[in-house]
Amino acid sequence: MFTTVMRPALLAASRSPRVERTVTSMATTRKMVRRFVAGETEEQAAVVTADLLDSGRYASIDYLGEDTTDIERARGTVSHYLALLGTLEGLPGSTGTVRPLEVSLKLSALGQSLPRDGHAIALEHAHKICTAAAAAGVWVTVDAENHTTTDSTLGIVRALREDFPWVGTVLQAYLLRTEGDCRDFSGPGSRIRLCKGAYREPAEVAYQDRDAVDASYLRCLDVLMGGLGYPMIATHDPVMLEAAAGYLRSGRRGVDGFEFQMLYGIRDDEQRRLVGTGAHLRTYVPYGDQWYGYFMRRLAERPANLAFFLRSFGPGARR
Ligand code: FDA
């Protein structure tokens, strides 16, 4: 029922401006949002990041926003990233080959969805952020959005990698094409974050069945772990985590040869446990006031998240 009815409904609502107006105006929502979002300002994101670094974790910080069709807003997003990179100065920088600090970018927030020249504008904006990140010793990873953007996104990533070979990107195991993309991106120096995928996608391009998505994740994991790049294993799923740990135990990957990634506010105990085993773990830290789409995707992922949200409206709930 959750997978077949609630999940598609929540993902559809995540793109509805009308539902957005209702949900974002509720005080109860804002309280729950803080479970998944570090705050609204660069300073709040930096405080959360400093705590994560203190606990032995790395961080990837994302200024929330997506599907921008307004050039001024896209420019504003670039300014927020530049301010963020300035705010991160002073936090521990690179200690070896792995950089503790990274920023994650959504190209649709940088102008990719603009009706004219969106691809070129997003590339120019991402290039500007990469230049500042390089100076600050911070990595950049480009997030994956819905499948209509995948070709443009991977094209932009390839162009960025000509000047910044450490730029990473995300591949979504639910897409039928992704095993092939993993092969293309498994060469030396490549950094790929493998996730299951968070958008509502049609059967022509994506596996619909949970078992098929999981099987694809395991095949993609095998390609990346067997390749020459640096895999970033983004999941909270015990089965996927155990599969990745298996490569470590069998000696097919060293502990410095990959990292785990999880979202801020999700499975915090497991994040700490993995760090305790000596593994690299990076927490994805979103911040900013445009949290609606991100928040709705988290509700769509797990019945417990939705139940917690709905319970907060019940009798006795504190607003
Ligand atoms: P999934 O949701 O399939 O759950 C599987 C199992 O994991 C559950 O049955 C449960 O056992 C366990 N589990 C999951 N959540 C739990 C919780 N809160 N508490 C306890 N157990 C839990 N997507 C995208 O499309 N583009 C992107 O760029 C990114 N980027 C990204 C970065 C990072 C760092 C992460 C971790 C994820 C993403 N994602 C993403 C989101 C991703 O595609 C996916 O939607 C979520 O990670 C959920 O899938 P999982 O693999 O975590 O497990």
Structure characterization notes:
- With 319 residues, the chain is of the alpha/beta class.
- 50% of the residues lie in helices and 13% in strands.
- It is built from 13 helices and eight strands.
- Strands 1-2-3-4-5-6-7-8 form an eight-stranded parallel beta barrel, surrounded by eight helices.
- Helix 1 packs antiparallel against helix 12 and helix 4 crosses helix 5.
- The mean pLDDT is 92.
- Dihydroflavine-adenine dinucleotide binds next to strand 4, strand 5, helix 10 and strand 7.
Question: What's the layout of helices and strands?
Answer:
Layout (H helix, E strand, L loop, with lengths): L1 H12 L3 H8 L2 H10 L5 H13 L3 E6 L7 H18 L12 E5 L12 H19 L2 E4 L7 H14 L4 E5 L5 H7 L6 E5 L14 H17 L3 E5 L3 H12 L9 E5 L4 H9 L4 E7 L4 H10 L1 H9 L8
Parallel strand pairs: 1-2, 1-8, 2-3, 3-4, 4-5, 5-6, 6-7, 7-8
The protein binds dihydroflavine-adenine dinucleotide (FDA).
* Ligand set: dihydroflavine-adenine dinucleotide
Based on helices, strands and strand pairing, what is the structural class? alpha/beta
- Residue-averaged pLDDT, rounded? 92
SSE sequence, one letter per element:
HHHHEHEHEHEHEHEHEHEHH
Number of strands: 8
- How is the largest sheet built, in terms of strand order? 1-2-3-4-5-6-7-8
Cα(first) to Cα(last) distance is: 29 Å
Proportion of beta-strand residues: 5-15%
What would you report as the Rg, rounded to the nearest angstrom? Answer: 19 Å
Number of helices: 13
